[in-house]
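User: Structure please.
Assistant: Input sequence and predicted structure:
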Amino acid sequence: MAKIGVQAMMLKRQVAESGAYSIWKRLAAGGFRVVEVSQIELTEQTRDDIVRANADFGMSVAAISGGMGATGGGGNDSLRESFDKIVADCRALGTSRVRIGMLPMPSLASKDALLQFAADANVMARRLADEGIVLSYHNHHAEFARIDGVHLLDLIRENAPDLKFELDVHWIQRGGMDPVTVLGRYAGVVDLVHLKDYRIELPPASAFEALAAGDQTTWGEAWQNLVQFAEVGRGNLDFKGVVDAGIAAGAEYLLIEQDDQYGRDIFDCLADSREHLVDLGYADLF
C-alpha cells in the first residue's frame, strides 16, 4: 500500500537548530510516519539521530537525496563523488530509494547537454540498481519546456530507461500541464510523488500603494508573482484526483512539501495538509 509522508527539505533549518531526533519526534506527534530526506546534510550524527527516531517512534525513510553535479548541491551528497556513502546511508536508514532533486543547471543549455545528463543518470540508476536501490528524478517546471517539440521530461524518460520519476504536482501545474494527466502518462515509471498545492494570491497592499503612486515597476513585479506554494487543500489542485492518479501510476510514497510557508509555522502548515488529506479519505495512508 502506498504511504503519505513528509519531504524534510522544508525542515532543514529546524533540523540544523534542534537536531533530527527532535524534529522527527514532532513529526511523529503530528501523525507522520514517513520522511523523505533532502537538503539535510547526512552527517554521522544526523544519520544516527534519524535511525534512533525511526526506532523510537515507528517511523521510516522513504528516500534520501543525491545530486548529479560535482558537489551534489543543496546540502545533498554527490552521486558522482560520494556513491559509496549514499549507498551506506541507504543501508543505515533502511531505505532503498534515492532521488535527484534537480538536474545541474548547465544541462538545460542545449539538447546535447540534456541528453548527456539523461545518459549519466541512467548509468547511475543501473549502478544503484546493482545495490538494490531505485533512483528517481524530481521535476520542476523547466522540464516542460520543449526541444524539437518534445518536453524535456519526456526526453529524459526516453533516454534514461532505468530511471524512475518523482513527480511534483505543483511544478507540473506551474509548467502549464495538468498533474493528473501527467501522472497517468508516466504510469509505470512513477515511484514517488510530491504533494504540493498551487495557490494564486492577490497582490499585497504595498503593491496597490505602488500602483496608486504610479510605480509600475513594483506593481508589475507583484502582478507577475501571484503563484504561491500552498498547503494541500489551500490552493487550486484537485488532490483527490492527484492522490488517486499517483497511486494508480505506481507511486510507493507521496510526500507533502511546501517550499515557502510565507511566515506561517511549518508544523501548522503540515497539520493543515494532513487534515485535508484525511478529510479526503486517506487516513489509512499515514
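The chain has a mean pLDDT of 97.
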